[in-house]
Request: fold
Amino acid sequence: MTQMTKRALAASLKKLLSQKTLDKIMVIKDIYDLIDCFYTHEASRALDGKKLTELKQPLLLKSAEQGALKKASGTVVGELLAKYGIV
Reply:
C-alpha cells in the first residue's frame, strides 16, 4: 500500500471517528467488497432509486432486458440484482 493510500485511509478514518465510535465503523474485507460496494452505489445512483424493470424504455430494449433477466434468474448475477433491489 502506498503512503498516499495510507494517508487517505487515515484521513477517512479520522473523519468517521468524529461522527461515530470505532465499534460502529465497518471496514470492507477486501478489494472485491469495495468493488461490489462501488458498483452497487453507482448503479443505485444511475437508477435514481428506481428498479431496472420500472424504467421507461423502447419496446425492443425492454424485450431484450426481460430476456436477459430471465436468463440471469437463479444465477449469482440474478441473486445480486435482487439482493440490491435493482430488479
Observations:
- Residues 50-87 form one domain.
- The chain has a mean pLDDT of 81.
- The longest helix spans residues 31-47.
- The CA atoms of residues 69 and 78 lie 7 Å apart.
